[in-house]
Structures are given as structure tokens and as C-alpha cells.
């Protein structure tokens, strides 16, 4: 896992180079279609959450998350003639997602596959395949494949924007920012120590950073075998915050700019007032000051911050797994390609 985290700057650069040229094909495929729906599971689903927010906030395109069970179990025929369905699977072989893509085409959708495996069933059967260039990923927890999926989402979100190239200068800085975060590791050790001693852990973010919070929670659960609840800021405020008390570590992720930094500063103070130890990832100086422990994030605008903000979380997770005497490469009971249903 550590080796594959270290490969991410190169993987991100290769993926940007490979996919940016596909923007015209993405625009042509989406021409005349008003909606984009994403189908995915696990880490790929968290990447899709970012894709949805980027489409809506940057490109002005209505996005949403598709429930694969509508295709695989209910088998409901829907009218998707005005929709692009984006199916996301690092292996391109998760049967549920392959089946969902076939169903979407039967329902009239244009289909885009996001996968790390060229020639996989998902890539071969899509109208357009965005094949990421992470290279083979041997550790079970998705790190470089997740980051390159985020790159694919950035390409998709910018391709459908009125000005597709407006973020290109910042996109070009992503590999260097990822490399800097891997090398610096500022605050990682202290965050590992806090999580090691926690009785309960919650993770939260909002908007474009929501997928990052969910991915951090997922990685802590599957790699460190700690139950972690991932919430949107709003959902945490709507009830679950009442159980926050001493012994809880709250992991908050924030972009360095944008309209949600201030609410997350306020949330950090509120959680600390309830007795939680707040570990902040990213954000601005005020956010860092509001957190008991802080791990710096990327110097990237909010629209692209998720491409860097996941890296500190990965470093913390890998370090915590080792601190707990666990093998981060092969978490208990998990495999690289997961069958959603036992018979599938």
C-alpha cells in the first residue's frame, strides 16, 4: 500500500495525459442529454460522489447516483434516453456494475466506463471508456486507482463545462501537489496516535469534499478494522452530533477555499466543545486552528482539492494499520474484486 501511494504522482500525470484528449468525445457523447448518473460501489462510489458534485457546481450539469439494484434485482426498465450513465470500477470486472451498464444501454443511455483495466468487460462494452493509468494495483485497499478515478472525474466534469480548459493550469499541478504531500507527511504521526487511542471515530465533509470524507471512513474501516461512520456535514448536524463526546475522534476534511470552509470551522469548534478530538485534513489557517490536530492538504482550488486531500488520509490509514499490527495490503476478509451478492 505504501509503495502504491508513492506511485500516485506518476499515475496521476499519466492519467491526465491519457484522458484530457478525450474531452471532445465526452462532449459529443453527451450532446443532447441533460443528466449524468453514476453507478459504482465502494471506493469507486466515493469517486463518483466527487464527480457528481463537480458536474453540478462547475459544469452546471445535473448529476446523481444510480442504484445498481434497480438494474440487477428489480430489473425496472427506465427511460434513460436523455442520460449519460457513467459506470465506475477499478477492475472493470465487477459483475454488478457490468450488468448495470448493459441495462443502462438497453434503457437508451449513452454509457461511459471509468476503469483501470483496458479491455475489461466494462471498458469493452461502453460507448466510451476512460481508462485510467494507475498501473497494476496489488494491495487490496484502492489508493492509486482511486486517485486516478478522481482524475477521470475531473476530466469528465471539465469536458462538460462551458469552458473546458479553465482549470487546466491547476490540473497540471496535481501530480506535484500529490508528491509534496507524500514527502511532507506533516501531522500524520499525531493523527495516527489519536486514532489509535479513539473509542469511536466519525468522518465528515461536505460538497466537493464529501466523497473524500466517505473514502477516508471506508479506508479506516477496511484497512484498520475500526468502525467509522462517514457523514456529510449536514447529516452530522441533523442528529448524530448528539452522541459526540469525549473519546470520539472526528476526522474533518475541508478544501482550502470555497463556501463550506467556514461551516467546517464552526463544526470543528462545536465538536471540540462536546469533548471530541478533532483531526482536520486540509482547509485554511482558520480551519487548522480550530482543530486539535491538523494534517495539511493540497494547495488546489476547491474544485480539484479532492485529488490531493485523499493523500494525507491514505498516509494516516497506512500508518495506523501498521501501528495496530495489521497488514494494510491484505485487510481481513476482503478481495480486490468484490462480488456484491454471494451468488454473483
UniProtKB/TrEMBL annotation:
Gene Ontology molecular function: any one: carbohydrate derivative binding
Keyword Repeat appears in the UniProt entry: yes
UniProt cross-references to Pfam families, sorted A to Z: SIS
GO BP, sorted A to Z: carbohydrate derivative metabolic process
Alphabetically ordered keywords of this record: Repeat
Domain SIS: 25-166, 191-331
Signal peptide range in chain numbering: none
Protein name: SIS domain-containing protein
Amino acid at each position: 500500500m505504501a509503495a502504491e501511494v508513492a506511485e500516485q504522482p506518476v499515475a496521476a500525470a499519466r492519467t491526465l495525459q491519457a484522458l484530457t484528449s478525450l474531452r471532445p468525445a465526452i462532449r459529443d457523447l453527451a450532446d443532447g442529454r441533460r443528466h449524468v448518473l453514476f453507478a459504482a460501489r465502494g471506493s469507486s462510489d466515493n469517486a463518483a460522489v466527487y464527480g457528481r458534485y463537480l458536474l453540478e457546481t462547475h459544469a452546471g450539469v445535473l448529476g446523481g447516483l444510480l442504484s445498481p439494484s434497480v438494474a440487477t434485482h428489480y430489473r425496472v426498465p427506465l427511460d434513460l434516453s436523455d442520460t449519460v450513465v457513467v459506470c465506475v470500477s477499478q477492475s472493470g470486472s465487477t459483475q454488478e456494475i457490468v450488468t448495470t451498464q448493459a441495462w443502462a444501454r438497453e434503457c437508451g443511455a449513452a454509457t461511459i466506463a471509468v476503469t483501470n483495466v483496458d479491455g475489461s468487460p466494462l471498458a469493452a462494452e461502453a460507448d466510451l471508456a476512460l481508462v485510467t493509468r494507475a498501473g497494476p494495483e496489488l494491495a487490496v485497499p484502492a489508493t492509486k486507482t482511486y486517485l486516478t478515478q478522481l482524475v477521470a472525474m475531473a476530466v469528465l466534469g471539465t469536458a462538460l463545462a462551458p469552458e473546458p480548459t479553465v482549470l487546466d493550469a491547476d490540473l497540471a499541478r496535481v501530480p506535484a501537489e500529490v508528491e509534496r504531500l507524500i514527502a511532507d507527511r506533516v501531522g500524520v504521526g499525531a493523527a495516527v496516535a489519536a486514532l489509535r487511542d479513539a473509542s469511536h471515530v466519525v468522518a465528515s465533509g461536505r460538497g466537493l469534499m464529501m466523497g473524500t470524507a466517505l473514502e477516508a471512513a471506508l479506508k479506516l474501516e477496511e484497512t484498520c478494522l475500526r468502525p467509522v461512520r462517514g457523514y456529510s456535514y449536514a447529516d452530522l448536524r441533523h442528529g448524530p452530533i448528539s452522541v459526540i463526546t469525549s473519546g470520539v475522534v472526528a476526522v474533518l476534511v475541508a478544501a482550502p477555499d470555497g463556501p463550506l470552509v467556514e461551516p467546517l470551522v464552526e463544526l470543528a469548534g462545536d465538536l471540540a466543545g462536546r469533548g471530541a478530538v478533532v483531526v482536520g485534513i486540509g482547509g485554511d489557517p482558520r480551519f487548522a486552528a480550530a482543530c486539535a490536530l491538523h494534517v495539511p492538504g493540497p494547495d488546489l482550488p476547491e474544485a480539484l482539492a479532492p485529488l490531493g486531500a485523499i493523500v494525507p488520509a491514505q498516509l494516516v490509514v497506512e500508518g495506523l494499520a501498521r501501528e495496530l499490527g495489521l497488514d494494510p495490503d491484505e485487510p481481513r476478509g476482503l478481495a480486490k474484486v468484490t462480488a456484491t451478492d454471494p451468488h454473483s
